[in-house]
Every structure is written in C-alpha cells, then in structure tokens.
From TrEMBL:
GO cellular component: cytoplasm; membrane
Native organism: Hypocrea jecorina (strain QM6a)
Keyword Glycoprotein set for record: no
Lineage top rank: taxon: Eukaryota
Keywords, ordered alphabetically: Kinase, Transferase
Domain DAGKc: 111-250
Record's protein name: Sphingosine kinase
Keyword Translocase: no
PANTHER family: ACYLGLYCEROL KINASE, MITOCHONDRIAL, SPHINGOSINE KINASE
Biased amino acid composition, Basic residues: 11-20
Ranges where the record places region Disordered: 1-25
Length: 483
C-alpha cells in the first residue's frame, strides 16, 4: 500500500525516503505516506506499488496513473491529490522529489519508459489481438509513458523480416501481441542478422497473450490475460534465456520454447482446422490419439546432463535459490553471428559420448525450455530459463490409455513430473530420427517442420526476454524445496 494520507502527521517526511525495491513486485508493501495533509481531511487511498504506472505533478496536484484490479483483469485508473496551498511547510519534500522517489520505488530494477517495437498478429489464435491492444494494453503503455512503434502484421514471415532489420539501439524490446509463433519468428529474425549474438543479447523479446497457447506469457508474465501481462511487461526485468539451435538438412533455426514429435505435435499441428476453439482443440486432439495408443518409432541420441528425478529436483533447487547460477555475461560487442555449433549438424556423425537408443513404443517425445506450454499445462516443471539445459519428457503409448490419461491430467495438478510412466531428463543436445513412418508432425515452438531427422543443441543465455521477476512464473516440481 503506497499512498496514505496521514491526518495526524506521524509519518510525514518519510515518503521521500522510500527506497527502490529490488524487484517491483506486489510484495513491496509500503512506500510511505503522503507528506501532505489531504485538503478535504479525508482518510486514506491505497495503491499497490507494483500497480503504479506513472506519477507527476500537474496543476498543483499529484496525479498517479495506475492499473486497478477489475474482476480477473486490470483497468487504467487515475488518482489525483490536490496539493496543499499556500506554500508547503519548510522541510517538506518537494512534490517533484516525492514523485521521483515514488517512480523509482514503483519500478525497482525494471527500466521505466521502455521503448517497444510492437508487432500485432491480427490472426492469432481465436483472433482479437487488435481489440486487446486498443482496450487492454495500449492504455497502460501510454500511461507508463512508454515509447511505442506499432506494426500490424499483414502476412506470415513479416515478424522475422522486421526483426532481422530492426535498429537494435532504438528499442528495449520487440513485443509480440500474438500466440507463440510470432516470438519464434522474432528470435529467428534476430538470429539471421550478421550481428545475431549481439542483437539477441541487446534486445529483449516480450509477449502479450493473444493466441491459444501463450506459453511465453504464462512463463514470463505469469498470466494469460492481456492487461495483467501488459503490467508485467511495464514492470518487467530483462532475463537471459537459453535458446536451442535446430539443424535439419542444411537449415538452422532457433527454438525458444519446445520441440515435439508424436502425440503432442499431432494434437497441436494436426488440429489447425479447429483454431476457433482456442486451447480446447489441443485437448481434444490429445484424447483421440491416446485412445488409439498411437506409437511413433524413432532412433534417439542424447547428451544427458542430469538424470534421475531426485537429482533434477536438487538441480532445480540449487538454481532457484542461487540466482547467480542463472545469470550470464552479455555478449561482447565484437561477437558476430550465431554461436558455433559444438556438436556439428544433423549431417555430421553423432558424438561418441551421446547415449543412442531405438524406441518403438513411445507416444510422447517432448522437449521443453519453458515450464508452461499452455494454460494449466506445466509440462516441464523443472525447466529453468538459463541453466543451459533442455528438459526431455517421454511417455510410452503401448500401455493402458487410462494410465496415459491419468499422467496427462496430472499436468494440471502439478504431479506430472513424479508420475512413474513419465521419463524426465535434463539434456544439452540430441538427435532424433523418425523410423517406419511415411509422414508425420514435428513441431518446433508450435511451427511445423518437415518430418525428417533433426538435431538440437542448446546455447546458454543466448537470448533475452522481459519477465516479471527474472524467473519463470511456475511452481517447480513438487517437493523441490525438500530435495
Ligand atoms: N497477418 C497475418 N496473416 C496471416 N498469417 C500471419 C499474419 N501474421 C502472422 N502470421 C503467421 O501466424 C503465425 C503465428 O501466429 P501466432 O503468433 O499467433 O502464433 P501461433 O503459435 O500460431 O498461435 P496459437 O497459440 O494460436 O497457435 C506465424 O506462422 C505467422 O507466420
């Protein structure tokens, strides 16, 4: 609670001393009391510090723009406090000093007035991105005095082209109002530049959820709501993010979110005709395939880094409790292009120290770099933004559909990680080669690529995103605190 009129004057003078919090989170509870008596002598007005977008002195009044809770979202509100006349008492902080201290405390380590290159995909998910922008996002950004350059995308591939040639000195963030496909295009546009490593480290990608999955926003903003996410971006901090190079044939693309083959890929990409349903289309796709016990034979070579669920919980605990393990140095100005591939491409020999095995009965092959894949689907509960590792999940299909369904339903209750039919490893690279199938679906961040072998290798902290707290907004595997 930050702004309190103070009728008996006990807390006067404290306000201007309000310290900037480490993070602008809701936990920062008290900035201080207004150092002036309310002209009308009335009681208090409280605004959570996290919700303050801006403050200024105008026409002898203190004017605070803030995001006020409204049902499950937020609404822009303005609070005006008439400053006392005539003159302020000697020793009172000046209104300007108070405002400066208030803004510093409200933003903490977050950069105020971020400069955003906003890319809106009007055809995302069930549609409505333009409406969300006008009604729920732009008002907050304007109130927060952000600098905005807004583009409504007119075709697929445009976000890649725009990111490839953006002036990286001009913006703090490239923001997608979309599903997860547009952030994928943005990372790949930045990755195509001759100064890719520098551009990926310089400009943070951010996301306002307008698609059907919206994993980026769920993990980084902690919300699937456009208004709540807009506030999270206004108040968000830059977070390094591991990115994965995928090589297939002679192509190389970057993945920020996930790779899948089998049930998950089919349920997403094979249900495009049901987009109007939003994220329900995925659940329906999943149920149909589980009942059919569909298997997807493949050969897999993996560089395993952390194996065993207890070891993974300990790895997670270590990284969450010691933030320094998740920080990375910025790429130096001299860096050029994408990093070299440590293990070559899918066309090279598989390195001798990778574990290679043939699988015939797997239904789910799913690799994640973030925790939530869609609302209520914390598939990769041990995922960390910058541990330099991908999380590999596999589930058999040749068992009772009941057992698979039970495991999939446990994603919602947070018990998926511990389910005995779920294999969970932390890996740094792999190659997968589908066998005995004419055609099928491979999904990279929800985008379809040819049904051919591919190889993946992770680059620790190659990208940057805006996140609410510098960590994923996810709970972690159950029991990690005790690990
Ligand atoms: N104006 C447009 N018209 C048609 N396609 C577009 C347009 N703008 C972007 N696209 C395409 O839309 C896709 C990205 O959509 P989006 O960012 O909503 O992600 P998504 O993953 O498809 O969303 P969802 O979560 O709904 O599945 C990309 O393949 C991109 O090429």
């Amino acid at each position: 609670m930050i702004l309190l009129t103070d009728p008996d004057g006990k807390s006067r003078k404290k306000a201007a001393k309000g310290k900037a919090g480490k993070q602008p989170s809701e936990d920062i509870s008290c900035f201080g009391c207004l150092p002036w008596q309310a002209a009308d002598g009335k009681g208090k007005h409280t605004i959570p510090l996290y919700n303050v977008l801006w403050a200024e002195v105008r026409d002898n009044a203190l004017v605070v723009d803030y995001a006020a809770p409204r049902k499950s979202s937020l609404k822009l509100q303005q609070w005006t406090f008439a400053l006392p006349t005539p003159e302020l008492e000697t020793g009172d902080p000046s209104p300007e000093a108070f405002v400066a201290a208030l803004i510093a405390a409200a933003y903490g380590e977050a950069k105020p007035r971020k400069r955003a290159y906003v890319l809106i995909n009007p055809h995302s998910g069930p549609g409505g991105a333009l409406g969300k922008w006008k009604k729920h996002v732009k008002p907050f950004f304007e109130a927060a005095r952000m600098e905005l350059d807004v583009v409504t995308l007119s075709r697929g591939g445009e976000a890649t082209e725009l990111s490839e040639k953006v002036d990286i000195e001009r913006f703090d963030t490239i923001m997608a109002l979309s599903g997860d496909g547009t952030p994928y295009e943005i990372f790949n546009g930045l990755g195509k530049r001759p100064d890719a490593a520098k551009a990926l480290a310089k400009i943070a990608v951010s996301h306002i959820p307008c698609g059907s999955g919206n994993a980026f926003s769920l993990n980084c903003n902690g919300s699937n709501d456009a208004g709540v996410s807009a506030l999270a971006v206004v108040k968000g901090v830059v977070m390094p993010l591991d990115l994965v190079s995928i090589t297939q044939g002679d192509r190389r693309v970057l993945s920020f979110l996930s790779q899948s083959l089998g049930i998950i890929a089919e349920s997403d990409l094979g249900t495009e005709n049901m987009r109007w349903m939003g994220n329900k289309r995925f659940e329906i796709g999943l149920a149909t395939r589980v009942l059919k016990k569909k298997c997807y034979p493949f050969d897999l070579s993996v560089k395993v880094e952390v194996d065993g669920k207890e070891m993974i919980k300990q790895h997670y605990k270590k990284h969450v409790e010691d933030h320094s393990l998740l920080s990375v140095d910025a790429v130096t100005d001299g860096a050029e292009g994408l990093p070299q591939l440590k293990y070559g491409t899918v066309q090279d020999e598989v390195p001798a120290d990778w574990e290679t095995q043939s699988y015939d009965n797997i239904g789910t092959f799913y690799v994640g770099n973030m925790a939530y894949m869609s609302p209520d689907a914390n598939f990769f509960s041990a995922a960390l933004p910058t541990d330099g590792l991908m999380d590999l999940v596999m589930m058999p299909a040749n068992i009772s559909p009941m057992a698979v369904t039970k495991a999939l339903l446990s994603v919602e209750t947070g018990k998926f990680f511990d389910n005995p039919i779920v294999s969970y490893k932390k890996i740094s690279a792999y190659r997968i080669t589908p066998r005995n199938q004419q055609d099928g679906y491979i999904s990279i961040d929800g985008e379809r690529i040819p049904f051919e072998p591919f190889q993946a290798e992770i680059h620790r902290g190659l990208g940057r995103v805006i996140s609410k707290r510098g960590l994923y907004e996810a709970e972690g595997p159950t029991g990690w605190k005790e690990a």
